[in-house]
Design a protein that fits this description.
alpha/beta; five-stranded parallel sheet; 7 helices
Length: 179
């Protein structure tokens, strides 16, 4: 199967790419992450992905813009639903790219992270697959969590400390002192 792999960051791509290739799939990568803030973080993740992709022969379909404002407009005052919108917008665009690129299916490295809402991602992916007339390739990649971390650390790969959005950065680093 020719699969488009939506990639949030290089470390999260390691295990899913390995498994997909071991299963005989022709995998291409796609980096579309308007949620990542600030821009320098976005650039660091994209650069790390490009370096990793070059090292493993992964073809990347680039997205040349940084539409952070669109992401923020759609989550402001709806912060409790921001992850749903974030998953939806990234997977929707990936399904669109996969359809236009004559891929048989698409999937995401979000299915690798133990910090993401796995069921929500699966449901959104399957719904978008029906809408776009393409297969959402579902696989739970979380069992390779430790393996991916070890490989990325051993390789000196850039590893971020939050999912990417400004809200998650706050949750990760800001801890209000209790009075």
């Amino acid at each position: 199967m020719k699969i488009l792999l939506h990639i949030c960051c290089a470390p999260c791509a390691i295990y899913p790419l390995k498994v997909l290739r071991e299963n005989g799939h022709d995998v291409w990568g796609h980096f579309y992450n308007p949620n990542i803030h600030p821009y320098l973080e976005y650039k660091r993740r994209l650069d790390a992905l490009n370096e990793y992709a070059d090292s493993v022969g992964l073809r990347i379909i680039p997205y040349e813009e940084y539409p952070m404002e669109e992401f923020l407009r759609n989550v402001v005052f709806r912060e409790a639903e921001r992850c749903r919108y974030c998953y939806y917008s990234r997977l929707k665009y990936s399904a669109h790219v996969a359809g236009r690129g004559h891929f048989e299916g698409f999937t995401t490295t979000l299915l690798y992270s133990k910090f993401q809402d796995h069921d929500m991602i699966k449901n959104i992916g399957e719904g978008l697959a029906k809408e776009h007339g393409i297969t959402f390739y579902y696989q739970d990649f979380r069992k390779g969590w430790k393996e991916g971390i070890k490989i990325s650390k051993d390789g000196g790969m850039y590893r971020q400390q939050y999912c990417g959005c400004i809200y998650s950065e706050k949750e990760r680093f800001y801890h209000k002192e209790k009075s």
